[in-house]
Structure formats: C-alpha cells, structure tokens
Amino acid sequence: MAVLFVGYAAGKAVYAAQGRLGFPGGPAVPPSEYERYARDVMDVTTAQWSAVVTGVLAAALVLLTVTRPGRRVPRLLMLVVLGGALLAVGAGAVIVAADGFIGLGVGWQWYHGVAGIVVMALLAATTWSYARATRR
Q1: Residue 1: in which H helix or E strand, if any?
Q2: Dist CA 51 CA 49 (whole Å)
Q3: Nearest Cα to Cα of residue 54 among 18, 10, 17, 23
Q4: 90 pLDDT exceeds 80?
Q5: Of 48, 76, 120, 122, which cross-links 16 as Cys (Cβ 3.0–4.6 Å)?
Q6: What's the pLDDT tens digit per position in 100-134?
Q7: Looking at residue 27, what DSSP letter applies?
Q8: How far is the C-alpha of 102 from the C-alpha of 108, rounded, in Å?
Q9: Do 112 and 96 meet the contact criterion of CB atoms below 8 Å apart?
C-alpha cells in the first residue's frame, strides 16, 4: 500500500508540474473542466500538489501500521484514521469501478475499475491486519 500511495503521489506530482488535472494513465480531462475547476474549486496546480501531500501522508500512515513508532500511536486513534482513509479511498474506488464497468461518463476503463477494487481490498487488509496485530 505504501508503494501504491507513493506512486499516486508521484503521478500527481507529474501532473502538478505540468499544470494538468487528472492522473497519468487516467481519462483525459477536457479544457472546459480546467476552467470550471479553477473558477469553482481551486487552482489546478494547487489541487494536484495537495493530492501529492495526501499520497505521501497516506504512505506514511500505512508504514506506521507496521513499525514500532506506529505501535505507540493509540490504537483507537489509528483505527479511526485508517477508517477515514478506507472511506476516502473506497469512495474513489467505487467511482472508478462504477465508471469502468457501467460507464458514468468520466472515462475510466474496466481495468481501472479492477485496479480500484484491488486497492480497496489491499487497504481493507491493511486495516484488518493492524486491528488484529494490536488487539489485546
């Protein structure tokens, strides 16, 4: 999971450096979406760099689940944070999978949907593994 999150951060960094929305290997974002996003949400580059930070923090979180410093974090706090990550990643995975398999109009393909399901399963396994390893 840490490698996947670092890969996510690296892909977002590439797009941030280029001032582009989206993710390498993902669907193309039309120019009109850049304008709408910049007008209604935030600057595209800022959004992408924020996603880089999120990916790095997620990788650190996953590493904390298997290291001694992470075991000093209160179990309940870690499980709440992992649950939040599971919900956030799960929401994204559901959108990618739904678009990949039934087509929501975003442009994700079936293999993106499979990848989303795999990532969701891996994060769920990470959460379960931490919960089992730290139970008393």
Answers
A1: none
A2: 5
A3: 10
A4: yes
A5: 48
A6: 999 888 889 999 999 999 999 999 999 999 999 99
A7: P
A8: 10
A9: yes
